[in-house]
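One thing: mind reviewing this one?
=====
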Amino acid sequence: MSPAAVSHLRVNGDQAIDLTAAEQAVRDLLVALGRNPFSEHLAETPRRVAGAFAEMLTADPFDLTTFANDEGYDELVLARDIPFESLCQHHLLPFHGVAHVGYVPGGRILGLSKLARVVELFARDLQVQERLTTQVAGWLQEHLEPLGVGVVLEAEHLCMSLRGVRATGARTVTSAVHGLLRDDARSRQEFFALTGTCR
C-alpha cells in the first residue's frame, strides 16, 4: 500500500477505515438522495461526514491501570453517570446516555478513569445497547477478576426518537451483572439502588 493511501486510513481495532472510500460513499449517498455533492454548501460534506464517522468509530487506546488491593477493600466501587455515545448498527444513527459501572474488588483495584475508558472502548463501534452492556461487564470480569461486576446503561436512541415511532425522550435501560452482584441478593440490591435503577 502506498504512503498516500496509508494517510487516508484510521484503525479501529483490527479494521482499517478508508477515509477516501468513505468520502466517495457519502457523495454517492447525496446523489441518491437527490442532492448535488459538488454544490457550494455540500462540497465539503463528504470529507466532514467521513471524518465524523471515523472519529465515532475509533476509541483512544489506553493502558489498564490496576493496583494491589493491599487494604483488602471488599465493598462496591461504583462510577455513576459516565456519558457515552455510540452508533446504532441498524440505522447508523447515534444513541447516547450514561453508564453506571461498578465492581467488588478481588486482588486488584482499578484506576477510576479506566471505568469510563472501558465504556468508550466498546461504545466507539457500530453497536446495539444490549451487546455494549455485556461487553463492558465481560471485559472487566476478564481483565480485573473482581468478586463481582455490574453495568447499567441508560440511553436515548435517535433511531427511535427522530424516525419511526418518534418517541422523543424515551430511554432504554440495560444491565449485566456477574459474580456477587448476580448471585448475592443484598449485593445486587445495593448495586441497583446506588445506580438509581433499583429493581
About this structure: The first strand starts at residue 9 and ends at 12. The chain has eight helices and nine strands. Residues 3-56 form a domain with the GTP Cyclohydrolase I; Chain A, domain 1 fold (CATH 1.10.286). The mean pLDDT is 91.
